[in-house]
Design goal:
Keywords: Cell membrane, Membrane, Transmembrane, Transmembrane helix. The chain has 22 helices and ten strands. With about 775 residues, the chain is of the alpha+beta class. It has three domains: about 400 residues, no CATH class; about 90 residues, 2-Layer Sandwich (Phosphorylase Kinase, domain 1); about 180 residues, no CATH class. The relative contact order is 0.07. The N terminus and C terminus are likely disordered.
């Protein structure tokens, strides 16, 4: 390996950079303030600015949205019997579940990922529109099959007709929801207001005619919603058609990206839907359809605050994404807590009003005697709405951090409490018991969301200390820009430290033409500085010998180490390209089998001279191999100097055996993956990369010795895991127990494949 004198790169920039005055920025989370000269002046201008401001339009939109929902329920309740209102509410719960799936699988991923540079803005929007169409088609098929089944098995005729009404309504409701969410994602609230106002006028007009002519029913009310959504959404789609571009070659990749994030969001949304609609589904067999209708009427009164809540909720995710992007965890936590306090204060006032006037409002809005005397139920449900509202900012914050698993865990707690409570308390205390169950589930869910959010912040160390340390390192790297406003975002947590990606606000380069850099922070202990220096030296060697080589069409890249800091311990390097193989193999789509085989050959061919020179990567695992199949780029990251290991087998090929054993040990110790297909793909990759190296050897005896050496090193790496009575130590003990037989089987399979010729890559051996 060529010798390098690098310890740290010079801190000076080029001559043009020294002469340019340092830019000064101000930390911000919300929209940039306007220039003083552009502020509207005068009472009329201020009034116009208020009316057309984002928050006012959002509030007006939700007033229209929630007001339409309330008036629809009131019209159905006043013009029919309570059982019809119960049937209509069940239909709305089915529609709400479909919208929740759409929100999780399509709309939230679009809102969160629409800034990603993989596609243009119109292509991101086009893929989301296509996904909405596919979901609408699937929902139509499922609902039609359900309606046919209900007819065949002799279900209640009213419920059967309701199912056929949903077959017509759900696809257009999904399209309408896509239009308004697209507008909110772009903070174009005026378009959302126009869509919802159009639906409101048409829907209430049809319902008014049905009530006036005595034709009102749950079926007619559902069809009225479908007609209103169809006419409005089709007009909007025609007007906005130029904003959507659908490219067939991007469909599979876009679908996979949305699914990776959306599958967990969907699970979370489904648990929320089950929690919200469980009472409507469980009360008919427990208490009857009439009681279900009365409960639905109580819920409409308790939900009178929805215009205010939804106005804030529709902007919670975009604002959380912006706060996390610009200010990291500190700004995100501040934004979430500010939103929670604001929602709690508004809902507290609402609950006080409901406590004193809930029963009176119920008697005024619904005239049937069955609706009277339920003021306590309305108050309990209003408090439950407040608890849910307080937990919403934490859930949206976790979504902006792309941590959907935590959302699923938190919402599942509230759902379980609600389901158990409705089943137990409604039988004993009727509607009041059901309301108490909903309240208990809402409180449990809100507490779980905040606990999960704070736990995620603590786990990623993005609460502020990490950012301050990154800023200290950047000031050492760029002393000419002490007051610069850096865009610092967490990239992930490695075994040794926390990774952050850093960019300069605006379009300027951060360092020597690089727009983004990576800062790896190590624990602030005595060993942190030594680890940083050791990995800096290892990365320098790997970069000098490996970066820029091309094998089998694959271009190899390694991060360029730029600076090592002793206090705080940190390593600064350039960004690497691609997605780590751990995620690629888990997704099962990219890279494809043939491409994966060529990638394996390229990695071995690139690393073999490095190993022959007596150097090892030191931490070669699936997570440290990044690939970008579209451009055929493979990046090797996180090099380290390997620790000394004791084995009972002579180390004739030590550097290679250490790195190959690292991949095998990494695959074998993965005990958190339960999908057998993913496990098989990872094991096959480990076998193929070992086979690729064995293919460079001349005799079967050499291959046999190499397999024995790799196995000995892999078992030594297992023994090096710290085992103790701590949770982490017990986890390592479990890893040892499961990994040892896995390693033995993997090496035995590899040896078996070497015994039958030189064809080391079998068909379908890749992901």
């Amino acid at each position: 390996m060529p010798k390098t004198e690098a310890v740290s790169w010079p801190l000076e920039e080029g001559e043009e950079d020294r002469t340019a005055p340092p830019r000064r920025y101000r930390l911000h989370v919300s929209e940039a303030p306007c220039d003083e000269e552009t502020k509207p002046v005068g009472l009329w201008a201020r009034l116009v600015g208020l009316v057309f401001s984002t928050h006012f339009l959002a509030l007006a939109d939700q007033a229209v949205m929630s007001g339409t929902s309330l008036l629809s329920a009131v019209l159905v309740g006043r013009c029919t019997v309570p059982s019809e209102l119960g049937i209509f509410t069940i239909g709305l719960s089915v529609l709400g579940s479909a919208l929740a799936i759409q929100d999780a699988l399509i709309l939230l991923p679009y809102t969160i990922q629409r800034h990603h540079p993989s596609r243009s803005a119109t292509e991101h929007a086009g893929m989301s529109l296509l996904h909405t169409g596919l979901l609408a088609a699937a929902a139509t098929v499922v609902l039609a099959a359900g309606a046919v089944g209900m007819f065949a098995f002799g279900a209640d005729s009213k419920l059967t007709w309701l199912a056929w009404a949903l077959v017509f309504t759900v696809p257009f409701a999904l399209q309408r929801e896509f239009g308004r969410s697209y507008a909110f994602a772009h903070l174009n609230v005026a378009d959302a207001f126009v869509i919802d106002a159009g639906v409101a006028i048409l829907q209430l007009g049809i319902l008014g005619w049905l009530g006036w002519t005595g034709r009102m029913s749950a079926f007619g009310a559902c069809v009225a919603l479908g007609v209103a959504c169809a006419l409005t959404s089709l007009v909007w789609l025609y007007r906005e058609r130029s904003s959507f571009v659908i490219r067939t070659n991007q469909v599979w990749q876009a679908t996979r990206q949305s699914w990776v994030l959306g599958k967990w969001l969907c699970a979370g949304q489904l648990t929320v839907s089950v929690q919200g609609y469980a009472s409507y589904w469980m009360l008919p067999p427990l208490l009857g359809m009439t009681e279900t209708g009365v409960y639905a009427a109580c819920n409409t009164i308790a939900s009178l605050a929805n215009p205010l809540l939804s106005a804030f909720r529709n902007t919670l995710t975009p604002r959380a994404v912006l706060a996390f992007k610009e200010g990291g965890g500190t700004s995100l936590r501040r934004q979430a807590m500010r939103d929670a306090v604001m929602l709690a204060g508004a809902m507290l006032l609402f609950c006080m009003v409901i406590f004193f006037s809930g029963d009176l409002l119920m008697r005024i809005i619904y005239h049937e005697p069955e609706y009277g005397g339920h003021g306590d139920v309305i108050t309990i449900l209003a408090v439950a709405v407040m608890a849910t509202a307080v937990g919403a900012p934490a859930s949206n914050a976790m979504a902006s951090m792309e941590r959907p698993q935590a959302i699923v865990f938190a919402t599942s707690i509230g759902t379980v409490v609600t389901l158990a409570g409705v089943g137990l308390l409604s039988v004993k205390w009727g509607l009041a018991g059901a309301a108490c169950a909903v309240l208990a589930g809402s409180i449990a869910g809100a507490m779980a969301r905040w606990a999960a959010f704070l736990a995620v912040l603590a786990q990623l160390d993005i609460g502020g200390g990490g950012h301050r340390s990154v800023l200290e390192v950047l000031k050492q790297l760029r002393p000419d820009s002490i007051d610069a406003d850096w865009d610092i975002r967490p990239l992930g947590k490695g075994f040794q430290g926390q990774l952050y990606v850093v960019g300069a606000q605006g379009d300027g380069a951060l360092w020597r033409g690089h727009s983004h850099l990576v800062v790896k922070l190590y624990p602030d202990r005595g060993e942190g500085a030594k680890t940083a220096q050791r990995q800096f030296d290892a990365q320098v060697g790997l970069h000098v010998d490996v970066n820029g080589t091309t094998v089998d069409g694959w271009k190899t890249r390694t991060p360029e180490p730029l600076y090592v800091s002793a206090s705080p311990p940190a390593l600064v390097m350039t960004m690497a390209e691609g997605t780590d193989l751990n995620k690629c193999l888990a997704a099962g789509s990219d890279p494809r089998p043939g491409m994966l085989d060529s990638l394996v050959r390229a990695v071995v061919a690139v690393m073999r001279p490095y190993w022959t020179a007596g150097f090892a990567h030191g931490d070669l695992c699936l997570q440290n191999i990044l690939c970008e199949p579209a451009n055929r780029i493979v990046s090797l990251i996180d090099a380290d100097r390997p620790a000394a290991l004791r084995t009972d087998v002579p180390s004739a090929s030590y550097p290679a055996s250490f790195d190959l054993a690292g991949i095998i040990c990494d695959v074998a110790t993965d005990i958190r993956t339960f999908d057998r297909r993913v496990i098989s793909r990872k094991q096959m990759f480990a076998e193929n990369i070992l086979l690729a190296f064995l293919g460079t050897m001349d005799t079967p005896e050499e291959q046999q010795k190499m397999i024995e050496e790799v196995g000995a090193v892999a078992r030594a790496q297992l023994e090096a895991l710290d085992v103790s009575w701590s949770p982490q130590g017990l986890y390592h003990l479990l890893q040892r127990y499961i990994a040892k037989p896995r390693i033995n089987r993997l090496l035995a399979d590899t040896l078996h494949r070497t015994s039958y010729g030189s064809r080391f890559f079998v068909d379908g051996g890749g992901a």
